[in-house]
Amino acid sequence: MPTQPSKTLETFENPNRDRDYTIRIRIPEFTCLCPKTGQPDFATLDIAYVPDKYCVELKSLKLYVWSFRDEGAFHEAVTNRILDDLVGALAPRFMRLNAEFNVRGGIYTTVVAEHRDERWTPPVEVSLP
What we know:
It is built from 2 helices and 6 strands, in the order E-E-E-E-H-H-E-E. The protein has helices spanning 58-66, 75-90; strands at 11-13, 23-33, 40-50, 54-56, 94-104, 107-116. A 4-stranded antiparallel β-sheet has the order 2-3-5-6, covered by helices on one side. It is an alpha+beta fold. The protein is globular and about 45 Å long. The longest helix is centred in the middle third of the chain and has 16 residues, at 75-90.
């Protein structure tokens, strides 16, 4: 195969750094392995972030997510690792990762992890009539 999984997250400069705006990314085909049984776990990852200087390049994100396919990880650990890696690469103003894992043994698991830059103040939401 010409493309291989990778732990490298590439970035590009935020074209509108002077504005707070939200980037939402939905990844419906995340897979990793259960560290107890070795069986596959499937999840949908929803990433929402307010970029600062950098944005994530989507092909590198796809290859990064693919790199977990053969790794054993508890849901809580893998969710927080992905958030930490993204924050390390992007240093966003705010980021939330919602990892919704498919049912296993009659149990659904959703893990939500967040990062907020301590220097960032979220904008006040505008409610229109």
